[in-house]
Write a structure and sequence with these properties.
Blueprint: E1 2-4, H1 6-13, H2 17-24, H3 28-36, H4 43-53, E2 61-63
Antiparallel strand pairs: 1-2
Length: 68
C-alpha cells in the first residue's frame, strides 16, 4: 500500500501550499488530495513538485505492507 509523504515534505520545505498548487497548475484542494492519498499525483506533476521541494519523486510516497 502506498502512503503519501507529500504533506510532511511540503511542511518541511517551508513553501506555501498556494504557491505549490499554482506551480503545479492545480487547486489547493487537489493538492490536499495528493497529500492525504485520496488521489495519486500524476508523474509530470510529481517531477515538478519534487523539483520545487528538492526531493526525488520516489520520496513522495513510501510503501507499507498491509497486515496479513
Amino acid at each position: 500500500m502506498l502512503k503519501s509523504n507529500i504533506e510532511f515534505l511540503i511542511k518541511q520545505s517551508g513553501l506555501r501550499k498556494s504557491f505549490i498548487a499554482e506551480k503545479l497548475g492545480i487547486s489547493v484542494r487537489q493538492l490536499r488530495k495528493y497529500e492525504t492519498g485520496d488521489a495519486l499525483i500524476p508523474i509530470d506533476k510529481a517531477y515538478i513538485l519534487g523539483n520545487l521541494i528538492c526531493k526525488k519523486v520516489d520520496e513522495l510516497y513510501s510503501f507499507e505492507r498491509e497486515n496479513e
